[in-house]
Every structure is written in C-alpha cells, then in structure tokens.
Amino acid sequence: MTSDVLTLDDITTVGLIGAGNIGTAVARLALAAGQQVVLSNSRGPETLTGLVASLGEGASADTAEGAATRGDIVVVTIPLKAVTAVPVEPLAGKVVLDTNNYYPGRDGQVPALEAGEVTSSQLLQQHLPTSKVVKAFNHIGSGDLESQGQPAGTEGRRALAVFGDDADAVALAGQWLDRLGYDVVNGGGLEESWRIQPDTPGYGPRLDADGLRQALADAQRP
What we know:
alpha/beta
C-alpha cells in the first residue's frame, strides 16, 4: 500500500530499518498503539531473536528488504554513513521516516553537509527518489521517547518536529506521531530540517508545541 491512498487507520504494520535504541523505542510505541512491527538490521534477522521475544506479540524480524516491503510506513533509523544500503524499490511510493543525525566523528565528513548545501534527510530523499521522506524522532533520546508520550490534549504535552517535501506524507506522519503520544510541529520542507539538527535549541530538551516552534525559529545554521 502506498501513501497515495494511505490513511492513519491503514497503518497496521510498521517497518523498521535499524533496530538500535531509537528503533526499539519506536517499535514499543507502535506495539502499544496496536500496530505490528517488523524489525531489521545489517546483521540479519537471526540476530534479532532476543529483541523480538522481549517486544512480544506483534513483533517480528526480517531483512531490510522484508521490513521495507511489509511496512505500511517505514522508519529508517541507521547511521548516515549506511543510508545507501537502504533498499530503494520496496519503498517506492511509501512514507519513510528518517530519524538520522549527522555526526562527523561517526559518519566521516560529508562535504555537502559541512557546507550546508543539503541536509541529511535530503541525502536520504536523493537515495529514495520515489519515496516520501519525513524527518522525525531525531531530537529526542530513546528513553524519553518511550516514557514521555501522553494522550492528546494533555497540557504541556511534548512536541516533536517533522519536516518533509510532501504535504500529505507530513500530515500522515504527524497523525501517527500523535497516536504514539506526541504533539507535532511542522517545520517545513526537508531543506529546513537543519533547524532540529544537533546543537540547535530544539535538539534534546522537552518542549511543548509553542516552545518547539520558538526553538525552530531561533535556530541558526552553522
């Protein structure tokens, strides 16, 4: 199913490419919301047996291609240096959430990022030209992500920023994050996602929607 016809209620299975701390936290939230999750990593599904067992009913492991194929919506949560390994064809037409941040010490220096010519999410979008990439989950720690979600309408509810070039994909991602327990602030297109990269005011602290909007506005590009 592609995002051209996808609605929030159509999201029954979440594919995860990457099964680290953020991927695991997203999986737990999705399971709590009544969805199934398919986890993958670079080492093969057999290495995820223990994690799948700990997550319980509704969780399974597959290859990256399998997670991309089976997910109604897919979360890419791997180091930037590995994004070229993300399968392209199974993600055609799908909403793909990108949790990544650029850390030169881990990823190596990327001249286009160092020069501010592109953002890390734009690099993933370039790799996935037929997908609809939405930046999300990159500015909250995994422990906070698991513990700070609250019902819609809760006063002071934490907000998460989303960025994307496809308005329908951004709207769907926002609805999904709301179901997982968070208010959502639309920060604009992927070219604006630098506003929530490391060392910006919105990266890390717990902020409600008004506070996060102000933090995005206050961000200064290096």
